[in-house]
Amino acid sequence: MSYFFEFEAEFTASLRCIPMIVRYKLDLCGVKLKLLHWHQLSQQQRQWLVVAPCNTPEDQATYRQQLRDWVTHNHGTPPSDLEIPQTFPWDILTELPETVQQQLTKVPHHSLTVEKWATLTPLQRFALVKLSQPGHENRNFWPALQEFGLA
């Protein structure tokens, strides 16, 4: 099983950047992890964050606590909390998130519709939401569309 997207290939072998699978889990368990914190983690700890389950409330509590313990140990203070919304934008299947719609206006020849959006995995939808955020570099939005068969 691959935990990474092809558009992340330049850094997944070294785990020098926080991969989408971990960013997804961070949002699910309400932790804001800075790149500085990530770099202070060992390779083994980073790998654990990639593969550890984060599907149930129990998994999320375990993931959150382990991460907070590691960051507090390495950095002296725990990571910040993120608000966990009732519904994440990638879980809404009846419409495209506004940031995704806005980013789609900047790319040619995409085939992303609400119907296709609903067929993507939650992690794929999460990636498109994150890659379309204002202030984000957005350079992987087009490669993600291609990888997901939408361009």
UniProtKB/TrEMBL annotation:
Pfam families: Nitr_red_assoc
Domain of life: Bacteria
Protein name per its UniProtKB record: Tlr1356 protein
Naturally occurring in which organism (per UniProt): Thermosynechococcus vestitus (strain NIES-2133 / IAM M-273 / BP-1)
